[in-house]
Amino acid sequence: MNKLISLFVLIPVLLCNSLSAQPYPADSIIASIAVMAENEEKVKALNSLGLMLSDQDADRAIYYVKQALSLANQLQSVESCANTNMILAELYESRHNYQPSINYYLISIKHFEKLGNELELSRLYNRLGSIYIHNHFDFDQGLNYFNKALGYAIRNNYKLEIANAYSHIGDFYYDQGQLDEALNYHLKAFETYELLNNRKAMAASYNVIGEIHLLNNNYDKASDFINKAIDLNEKGGYDHNLAINYKNLAEVFTNKGQSERAREFFSKSRDIIIKTGNRESLIDLYNQLGKHYSLFSEYDSAIETFHRMKELSNELHHLEGLRDAHLGLSRTYENLGNSRKALDYYKLYTHFKDTLFTISRTEQLGELQTRFGLDLKEKELALKDNQITLLQREQKLIKSRQLLLILSLSLLLILSVLIYNRLQQRNRKNSMLMEQKDALNKARQSLMETELKTKNNELVNFAIHLVEKNKFLEELRNDLKKIRGVSEEERENKLKELSLTVQKNIKLQKDLEEFQKNVDHTHQEFFNKLRRSFPDLTKNEERLCAMLRLNLSSKEIAALSNISVRAVEMGRYRLRKKLKIPFTTSLIDYLKEI
After folding, report:
1. What's the half-sphere exposure (Cβ side, CA atoms, 13 Å) at 134?
2. d(Cα 288, Cα 319) in Å, to the nearest integer?
3. How far apart are CA 130 and CA 551, in angstroms?
4. How far apart are CA 16 and CA 176, in angstroms?
5. CA–CA separation, 407 vs 317, rounded Å?
6. Which of 20, 61, 245, 357 has its CB 3.0 to 4.6 Å from that of 53, i.e. a possible disulfide?
7. Rounded distance, CA 301 to CA 464, Å?
8. Are the CB atoms for 120 and 82 separated by under 8 Å?
9. Closest C-alpha to 238, from 282, 201, 213
10. At what angle do helices 179-196 and 159-175 cross, to 10 degrees?
């Protein structure tokens, strides 16, 4: 509604454009906005321009909406500030830049609270809840926002927002595996959607309720609800949702052991997906179909299906699909007794799994760097704006000086005063530039500190990963002791299983070396200071210092170094003596101060 209202400002421009039967370029609209008075209508026009550019040039869209926000703040218009912050939040969310999006949503909420607009508050809290759960993985805060949205909606009887909040909370409990709670909320959502006669949402609720019954092994109920969803989606022509329904119904018949019926609905789902061109959904369908064939011991069909899935995933650079396809192939060949191929595909599965984990961590770091980069860029733009403003003032002073020289010598005194003012302006300009440079340097320093903190966190996570691997080897040694007394045939089977398990975790030494290398690289400056102050420390003592500085426990250090906890404690004791640290002082705190 707010977007539609803001577009009314551009109706005269667009009407003239339609009469001339020519496309109205964005630059012309920008020129029209430039001559508008500084009022709320200009704020709406800038917001409309930003929305118009959002799909074509997101950076320009954000630039113009920020201009609208600056003007709204100058006008001290609560309504304009509320709407503009909300639009900025939506633009950042569409770019998957979630932290600025959250900030602008929260600011918008503060303004809508002042306005008492509880409908928008309900909508915004629903949006915030989704971001926190699906992108920040903060489930408690996400559920808190959903409950706030539900409270506003119930208090004002906003039925659509009530249904949306129920649906979001149901999805939350579904993801947490609390199926009874999920079913309860999705039934409430369906009842409200039914009152609104929202058939598409009703079909979605039917489908989720069917999935819950499927997970609870209530196959008849699952089939009943999914068929209801199919009926609504067929009537509404919602092909994408219909493909999901058919796939879920195929899962029901798979679990009931009715292979032919399951394949019938797998085929229907595949035909719709191919028709709509949604190739990512086809990857998911191949994964389910491959599992279906394996379940019914049709291993050749399963292998063919997983290979199709692998080829399609490779074309689309779909790493999740490649990971799941190789896992499916590994399990299928394992069922066939082909251990070599099973192991080969499992190694590829592990590779893609590790790659996805690395990408996830890189994206998190990238989001952090982007956030600081945007702040830095905004400061640089502000500095340039100040420079332009000061240059414009300087040009005006030059023109004034020329005019005064032409008038007469009688105005010499006035001219002297103006020259003095000019010098004062220049001093202020230099002072402002110095302040901006100082702010820029502080921002850069903050970014460097954040990057160092992130690297330290990654080292700690890596260390924990290595500790877990060492625990695995300890368990493996215990398993080897246990098989001494079993029969020869059982011992042979156990040894094969343990051999396969060892091969999957064989990278321990390489991981240890990579961890030590990362520690040396990340804490190079710390090592330099340590060597200057204590040149007689051994290499092992330097690394012990680095691991203590990472706040690792003696048990974790022992696991990483493959020594006893007692040896680590003795190392700490000798290190304290070499560094001449009194026992009243924490060794870890002392090392963090270096």
Report:
1. 13
2. 17
3. 34
4. 55
5. 74
6. 61
7. 41
8. yes
9. 201
10. 160
Q: Ramachandran region of residue 582, left (φ > 0), alpha (ψ -120 to 50) or beta?
A: beta
Residue 188 parent element (H or E) = helix 179-196
Q: Return the SS3 of 507.
A: coil
- Dist. CA 23–CA 433, nearest whole Å: 43
CB hemisphere CA count around 308 (13 angstroms)? 17
Is 559 within 8 Å of 467 (Cβ atoms)? yes
Nearest to 364 by CA among 94, 96, 145, 58: 96
CA–CA dist 129, 169 (Å, integer) = 9
- Residue 396's alpha-carbon distances to 392, 400, 422, 480, 481, in angstroms, are 6, 6, 10, 88, 90
- Residue 58 CA to residue 50 CA, distance in Å, equals 8
For residue 106, the one-letter residue type is: L
Which helix (H) or strand (E) segment is 34 a member of? helix 26-34
Mean pLDDT by 10 residues, the chain (594 residues): 41 39 58 84 90 86 92 92 94 88 93 93 92 78 91 93 93 91 94 94 94 94 94 92 93 93 93 90 93 94 94 92 94 93 93 85 56 49 53 72 77 85 86 82 72 57 61 72 73 75 60 67 83 90 89 86 88 91 89 86
Structure tokens at 17: 């454009």
Q: Are 209 and 190 in contact (CB under 8 A)?
A: yes
Chain centroid, CA 225 distance in Å: 33
Contacting residues for 584 by C-beta, under 8 A, at least 6 apart? none
Instruction: Evaluate whether 145 touches 122 at the Cβ level (below 8 Å).
Output: no
Euclidean distance between CA atoms 85 and 82, whole angstroms: 5
Give me 583's structure tokens.
Answer: 């026992």
Measured between alpha carbons, how far is 211 from 175 in angstroms, rounded to an integer? Answer: 12
Question: d(Cα 550, Cα 593) in Å, to the nearest integer?
Answer: 12
Rg (CA), the chain: 33
* pLDDT value of residue 498: 72
DSSP string across 453-468: HHHHHHHHHHHHHHHH
